[in-house]
Amino acid sequence: MKITDRQLKRAVQEGILSQAQAEALVRFVRDDAGAGPGFDFTHVLYYMGGLLAIGAMTLFMNLGWEAFGGWGILVICVMYAAAGLGMTGFFRHRNLHVPAGICAVFVVALTPLAIYGLQRGMGWWPDSSVYRDYHRFIRYHWVFMELGTLAVGSVMAWRYRYPFLVMPIAATLWYLSMDLAPLIFGDRLDFREQAWVSVAFGLATLALALVVDLRTRGQRDYGFWLYLFGVMTFWGGLTSLDSDSELARFVYLLVNLGLIGCGVALVRRVFVVFGAVGCTIYFGHLAATVFRDSWLFPFVLTGIGLGVIWLGVLWQRHEAAITARVHALLPPHLARLVRGRGQE
Question: Are 137 and 152 in contact (CB under 8 A)?
């Protein structure tokens, strides 16, 4: 739950808070170490600079670095990591937790490049691929870089407790879901089987996200990035399983409606967004294929859209009662988690 300056002023005018209490509350929120990032110019600069630095060592890496050789790459990564850890400690000591978290993520982002340099230096690299291909192609030998990144990311997350550190862990799990399949099954996997692997891995990531959510209830939001990449992996694999069967496509619609329901129950917008996109894909298929020449379909779809709007009106009117009933059906730990998030 976010409280604006205007709401604080009204609370003072109506005698709910004194002016001194309002000012003390503002100072407390601004100085709170657990406060999350805001969307102001300072934080935009933080993330822009951080993402540029992280991108330079990951997505935007070029072939020029290959001239350093494996050991040279490893040494440079170690030096950069030492600088990143130093800056993390520097910012953290001054209660600048957003730049501290970004610098910690920078250290984790260096890990796959450092492992690549080590493998090159030791002569363990199996083919002619280069680090730049890591973010472009699926290869079984990326797995060692990913496992190392998960290990370093877990240690950094345990040490510094910044929610943003879960982002490289979640992204690496997504990469791992793609690279594990050829390592386990070889080249026997076709596109559909690979999609099923993504569906299974996405569900596992979502289960991990829920466990993390339950264990960190009342603290900062450590589950966000796991939910995001878990839904992306699951939904992406499911959407790739396009079928000629109308029954299978209808099941796809039901699954997406289920995602929307999960999003409402868990108070997680990412489920709702992907579920809504999936429903739109299904209705688009109906319009383009099944009812392509039907003059009635646009009217029916318009009616469905207006009906959804009316459902939104009913939901707003009876949200408290419906939410209470849904919470009563959930396990106690999950119900407490959802109730707490609904008040944020």
Answer: no
Mean pLDDT of the chain: 81
pTM over 0.85: no
Length of the chain measured in residues: 344
Q: What are phi and psi of 14, to 5 degrees?
A: -90, 5
Cα separation of 250 and 264, whole Å? 21
Domain boundaries, the chain: 1-31, 38-161
The identity of residue 268, as a single letter, is R
Q: Whose structure tokens read 């992907």?
A: 274
For residue 258, the surrounding DSSP H or E stretch is helix 246-266
191 or 268, higher pLDDT: 268
Instruction: For residue 166, count CB atoms less than 10 angstroms from its CB and return exposed for 0-12, middle for 13-18, buried for 19 or more.
Output: buried
DSSP state of 245: -
Residue 36 confidence (pLDDT) above 90: no
Other Cβ atoms less than 10 A from the Cβ of 68: the count is 14
Average pLDDT (293-320) is 72
**Whole-number Å distance between alpha carbons of 171 and 236:** 14
Task: Quote the DSSP letter at residue 36.
Answer: P
| Dihedral class, residue 37 (left if φ above 0, else alpha if ψ from -120 to 50, else beta) | beta
Instruction: Identify which of 259, 196, 194 has the alpha carbon closest to the alpha carbon of residue 228.
Output: 259
Listing DSSP states for 123-179 in one string gives: T---SS--GGGGGTS--GGGHHHHHHHHHHHHHHHHHH--GGGHHHHHHHHHHHHHH
Confirm if 125 and 119 have CB atoms less than 8 A apart.
yes
